[in-house]
Amino acid sequence: EAQVTQNPRYLITVTGKKLTVTCSQNMNHEYMSWYRQDPGLGLRQIYYSMNVEVTDKGDVPEGYKVSRKEKRNFPLILESPSPNQTSLYFCASSLKDREADTQYFGPGTRLTVL
Amino acid sequence: AQSVAQPEDQVNVAEGNPLTVKCTYSVSGNPYLFWYVQYPNRGLQFLLKYITGDNLVKGSYGFEAEFNKSQTSFHLKKPSALVSDSALYFCAVRSNRFSGGYNKLIFGAGTRLAVHP
Fold this sequence. Notes:
The structure holds 2 protein chains of 2 kinds.
Chain A: E1 4-7, E2 10-13, E3 19-25, E4 31-38, E5 42-51, E6 54-57, E7 65-66, E8 76-78, E9 87-94, E10 104-105, E11 109-113
Parallel strand pairs in A: 2-11
Antiparallel strand pairs in A: 1-3, 3-8, 4-5, 4-9, 5-6, 7-8, 9-10, 9-11
Chain B: E1 4-5, E2 10-14, E3 19-21, E4 24-25, E5 33-38, E6 44-50, E7 56-58, E8 64-68, E9 73-78, E10 87-95, E11 104-107, E12 111-116
Parallel strand pairs in B: 2-12
Antiparallel strand pairs in B: 1-4, 3-9, 5-6, 5-10, 7-8, 8-9, 10-11, 10-12
C-alpha cells in the first residue's frame, strides 16, 4: 500500500530533551515536507526537501532540523524542544515539486513538550 | 495577501441534504487547487484536485468541486451528506508565487463540517 508513515504517533517529552520524529514514504517521491498544525493557525510548513541532500526552510523553521540522506526518509529533529513546539506534526510527500503534484500526508504525530 | 480563504469556520447540514463548503483563492495565473479532509485523530486525506479542463471535478467519497474562474472559487459539494462526512475540510493551492521558486502548498484555515442525523 502506498503510504506515508510517521513515528511516533504520540509523544510527551520535557523541555530540552532532543527528539526525532521519523517520516518514511514508499512511493519513490522526490519532494517531502513537514508541517505543523495549530488551532486557529492552520497548517504551516516547517521544512521541505526537493530530493536527497536538498532541503530548505519553510515558514516556521526555528527550533527544527531535518535531513534527507535517503529518498524515502525525511526525519524531523528537535534538538532542544520547548513548550511552544507542542503541536500536531504532519509529514507529506509528492512525486515532484510541480504545481499539479498531489501531496500525500502521513497520519500525524501529536507532540507535547512539558 | 491571503491566497486561500475558507469563509466559514463551521457548516452544519442535516443528513441527506446537499452540502457545500466554500473556498476562494487569489493566485495569478492558472491555479492548482486541492481539497483535503481530516477526520478526528487522523491525517489529511486527499479528496480531489483541479488542474485544468472540466470545471467540475469528481473525487473520493462522492465529493465533487466546482471551479469558477470568474468568481475565483473552488467550492466543495456533495449531493447527499452523511453523518460520517463530519470532519475538518481544507482547501489548498499549490503555487510558486508565494515562495522562493518552489511550488508551495498553501492551506486555507479549514472548515468544520457537522452533519446531523
